[in-house]
Write a structure and sequence with these properties.
Low-confidence stretches: 37-45
CATH architecture: Orthogonal Bundle
Shape: elongated
CATH topology: Lysozyme
Radius of gyration: 24 Å
Order of helices and strands: HHHHHHHH
Number of helices: 8
Number of domains: 1
Structural class: mainly alpha
Amino acid sequence: MYPLAMHRTHRRRRLTWWLVLFAVVVVVAMWGIWKLGRHSYEYFSSGGTYDAIIQSAAVRHGVDSRLIKAVIWQESRFNSDARGSKGEIGLMQIMPGSRHALQDWADWNRVSLPNEGILSNPVLNIEVGTWYLSRALRRWNRYEGGVELALCEYNAGYSKARTWCPPNYDGQVIDRISYDGTKAYVIAIMGKYKEYKDTSTE
């Protein structure tokens, strides 16, 4: 009887280990499916909602639509009702009132300053954000890291972007950014921009 009891104990232990291994495999598989599903939803559903508006603004202002989309992803995750901690509004997180991009956009287009209530409108929000981004891209287009500098300007303003500008046109930008938040912002957008370029047909 003793060898039989030992045999049964061994079988139970072996069964327990197989069950634990199976549970681990199921958890890992479910996590992978969740990540894949989240990415697919984000790219093909949420982001796709505004593709026509993004494409129109991209053509109008000469900006790669995939870069605009990457900025929107970082700024709001495609939530047109998003509000930032400093009062930024909408998809591209435009600051309301007579400050920053909005005032510059209104002055350039010789129109009245839009009120806060209309800034969450996707068409206007993407128009203002893309215009501001296009101006920054033109400003830094002689630099190899011109896109990074434009994103620095979009996030932290022109004066800060200027301090992070490399002395040579082919110099690196990322390592010169002294704000951790802006550095993470630029790295995140550049990564998403590359992802969009790798998965698109443009």
